[in-house]
Amino acid sequence: KQEVTQIPAALSVPEGENLVLNCSFTDSAIYNLQWFRQDPGKGLTSLLLIQSSQREQTSGRLNASLDKSSGRSTLYIAASQPGDSATYLCAGSYNFNKFYFGSGTKLNVKP
Amino acid sequence: DTGVSQDPRHKITKRGQNVTFRCDPISEHNRLYWYRQTLGQGPEFLTYFQNEAQLEKSRLLSDRFSAERPKGSFSTLEIQRTEQGDSAMYLCASSASQGSPYNEQFFGPGTRLTVL
């Protein structure tokens, strides 16, 4: 059974800190790993997608890495800002038919 | 705005009633997904379409749930004889089978269902 776990469940940091969010998955035969942001009561916003042939992707202050052998992905946020406060979700797919989501990390960046 | 749209955004219904939700994907996307999300949890997969064909259904999708994508464009999700346990956010996503990045999912704003 494919499972995705995100640690920590919640994180509170002061503005300006660099931080790392973790995502682990049980089946290393992952095809895609996608990171999302979700604001309260809203849909999901795609941040980064890493395909199995890639090891990392970068967008602005965000960097996501994928290590299939260890079953882990990390999302690195540089110089965090209060506007980064949201829930961050990772999702893995093993074919094109579905994505398995973690429960998310709720991030609070304090001014 | 050419993103994924969902209608309605909110639905309140009484137990036992039927409800139908609509999703309009990004126009060039041939893949469409439905998910259900409850408070504090990540989205759970319900069903997947490629063009008009429904290729996968979760065991979560009981016989009270049915989804269609009649012309390979918009999709509907119907819940018959709603139960209080159906209360959740229903999310739709779409992706393309070609182009880069490959199969990146884009989500709509969701339909929040409350069953009284």
Largest interface: A-B, 24 and 31 residues
* Coarse morphology of chain A: globular
Count of helical segments of chain B? 0
> Which range does the strand content of chain A fall in?
over 45%
Using the alpha-carbon principal axes, give the shape of chain B.
Answer: globular
What's the overall average pLDDT of chain B, rounded? 93
Element order, helices and strands of chain A?
Answer: EEEEEEEEEEE
Q: Tally of extended strands of chain A?
A: 11
> Termini of chain A, distance in Å?
41 Å
The level of helicity of chain B is: under 10%
Q: What would you say about this model in short?
A:
The complex is a heterodimer of chains A (111) and B (116). By secondary structure, chain A is mainly beta.
What does it look like?
The complex is a heterodimer of chains A (111) and B (116). Chain A has 111 residues and is an all-beta fold. Chain A is built from no helices and eleven strands. Chain A has strands at 4-7, 10-14, 19-25, 32-38, 44-51, 56-59, 62-67, 72-77, 86-93, 100-101, 105-110. In chain A, the strands form two sheets. In chain A, strands 2, 4, 5, 9, 10 and 11 form a six-stranded mixed β-sheet that branches. The N and C termini of chain A lie far apart (41 Å). The model of chain A has no long low-confidence stretch (mean pLDDT 93). With 116 residues, chain B is an all-beta fold. Chain B is built from no helices and eleven strands. In chain B, the strands form two sheets. In chain B, strands 2, 4, 5, 6, 9, 10 and 11 form a seven-stranded mixed β-sheet that branches. In chain B, a hairpin with a 6-residue loop joins strand 7 (65-68) and strand 8. Classes of the chains: A mainly beta (111), B mainly beta (116). Chain A binds chain B through residues 4, 32, 34, 36, 41-46, 49, 51, 89, 91, 93, 96-104, and chain B through 4, 6, 31, 33, 35, 40-45, 48, 50, 55-56, 58, 91, 93, 95, 97, 101-110, 112.
